[in-house]
Amino acid sequence: MGAAGAGALAGLKVLDCTHVIAGAYCSLVLADLGADVIKIEPPAGESTRGMLGRTDGFRAFDYVNRNKRAIALDLSTEAGADVVRRLAKTADVFVENYRPGAMDRMGLGYERLSGINPRLVYCSVSGFGLDGPYRERGGFDLVTQAMSGIMSFVGEAGSDVPCSTAVPISDLNAGVFAAVGVLAALQNRHATGRGQHVETSLLESALAYTIWETGMYLSTGEVAKRNGARHRLAAPYEPLKAADGHLVVGVNSQRLWTRFCRAIGAPDLATEAGFDSPGARMRNRDALQARIEAVLATAGRDHWLARLEAEGVPAGPLNDIAQAWDDPQVRARGLMGEVDGRRFVKTPIRLHDTPVALLRGPGDVGQDTRAVLAEAGYTADEIEALLASGAAAVERREATA
To answer: pTM of the entire structure?
Structure first.
């Protein structure tokens, strides 16, 4: 039995031939939803086991590769690639995020595997897509954040310092879009009996999230500039400083503006010239912020948050990551799970009848090689021959610090 239990995707077998983040996050989402995900990596281990934050017990690899079974194959050998082809005969999904053409050269491309199993949904995640002038380029999150325009409008207003979003949104969004594409292709397979090739790219996944900035450009020709944490279309919709820290408010209508002014004990501000309309507040937002913060400085943020909540004004504290996870709402929702003595963030999808579950932590290299090969019909002698040849490998434990 795989890592999956009775989740919504129970019975679905996924071959995860990925590295780094984007493709691995796609298969992680599927694993959390109940699929049996088999992580395929080289006998020496995926390169990200030893990079991207391996320090003081933290390793980035672990947080996108839990809930998966781990097998080790040398895909540069015909025998190793042949194991994948054999596994693909009974698989539902194959996920890869190598450079375009790499899978074809190993005999593991879409045409080859779909010829073996026409029902297979084959998912490719790449830096720039399978066609176009950049198809051969390797893709990294920071590069595609820059090329998508995101780094040109993230950061403090007036600054000329490029700034990323800090979280790898190109990678993670590509993983989520890939998972959505896989589920759509599986639904289509119910009707047609055939799988298909699904693909997305880091660059397109970054561009897809520039909803307001692209919309403004297409509508008005305006090119977005850095605006700090202020909303581009409304004010006050930003962090504001109280006596003991920052809170964030979202006032995007005249109704909420009136309620906001009432909540902070300044009802006359709602109709004061220069602040009495959405456009006026946008034009005068520096002066507006100064007026508001002069009031907020008289009390702590908890005081103001309670008053804003009473008036129905969207607002919240500006938390650090430790405070965010200690928030009573976050704790109540159970997004943090524990397995094998370690805590992980679960996929934030609430299925009430078939909930997301954490069933196992990240496997050691080749931890499940023997079991997976046996399930695929390999005899004990055949498994030993693969191991002896180096085409497959078994468990190799690693330190995590």
So the answer is: 0.93
